[in-house]
Amino acid sequence: MIQQVTSGIKISVETTFEGTFYKNYKINFAFGYLITIENQSKDSVQLTSRFWKIKDALNYTEIVQGEGVVGEKPVLKPGESHSYRSGCLLKSPFGAMRGYYNMVNFTSTRKFKVSIPSFKLSAPFAMN
Cross-referenced InterPro entries, in alphabetical order (predicted)? Predict the structure, then answer.
C-alpha cells in the first residue's frame, strides 16, 4: 500500500492486476486500484475534481481529468474517510499513475490540491 498526507488529507492506494484482453486486435492490460481518502484535518472538506497522469512502459501517457471520483463529490468531516475502486488499461504490463484531487475547505472556503502519490502498476507474470 502506498500512502501520502497533504494538508491533513491522507491518500492510500492499493493496486490489483485484473487480467489481459484484446481490444481492436491489440492486447491490453487491465489494472484496478482502491483509493481511500481520509480527512485527518480539523475542517470539513469536499473533493471537487481529479487529475491523473497514467504512463505505461512503452512511454504512452494518458491524462484523465474531470469532476469528482466515480460520479461522486464526497464531503469528509474530520476523521471521516471515503473509499472507491476504479481502474485503467495499459498497452504494456508495467506502468505508473500519479495525480491530485482538487478540494475545498468548508471552514475557510479555500481551494487546495491533494497529491495522489505515484504508484506502480505491474502484471505479476511480467515481474522478475
Answer: ApaG-like (IPR050718), ApaG_domain (IPR007474), ApaG_sf (IPR036767)
* DSSP codes of every residue in 83-99: EEEEEEEESSSEEEEEE
Domains, the chain, ordered by start: 2-123 (2.60.40.1470)
Q: Which three cell numbers stand for residue 10?
A: 491522507
3-state secondary structure (DSSP) of residue 41: coil
- Reported as a single tens digit per residue, the pLDDT across 81-117 is 999 999 999 999 999 999 999 999 999 999 999 999 9
CA angle 43, 40, 101 (to 5 degrees): 80
Query: How many Cβ atoms are within 10 Å of 63's Cβ, its own excluded?
Result: 9
The secondary structure of 55-117 as a DSSP string is: EETT--EEEEEEESBTTB--EE-TT-EEEEEEEEEESSSEEEEEEEEEEEETTT--EEEEEEE
